[in-house]
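User: I've been trying to design a sequence by hand for this structure and keep getting stuck. Would you show me what you'd pick, starting by listing the structure so we're on the same page?

Assistant: Good idea, let's start from the same input. This is the structure you sent:
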């Protein structure tokens, strides 16, 4: 799973994270747990960049499972979606 913060006006990626960046022990967890971990990592990058609001574009994916977990973690951490 990949998550990105993109500036649509400039057409550039500001920050990104993926499950490939997780440590070996974390990769053995469920996919929902992995999504929660990378969502928290993305929030930390957003915080460093001073980003407080974002639009959550889930593409064609349904809002459940990993997608829902990502949104919930980002909201819980304080990012306005």
């Amino acid at each position: 799973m990949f998550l990105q913060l993109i500036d649509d006006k400039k057409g550039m990626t500001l920050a990104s994270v993926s499950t490939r960046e997780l440590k070996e022990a974390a990769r053995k967890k469920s996919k929902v747990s992995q999504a929660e971990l990378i969502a928290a990592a993305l929030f930390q990058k957003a915080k460093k960049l001073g980003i407080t609001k974002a639009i959550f574009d889930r593409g064609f994916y349904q809002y459940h499972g990993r997608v829902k977990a990502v949104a919930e973690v980002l909201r819980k951490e304080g990012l306005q979606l």
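That's my pick for every position. To get oriented when you compare it with your attempt: The chain has a mean pLDDT of 94. The two ends are 19 Å apart (CA to CA).
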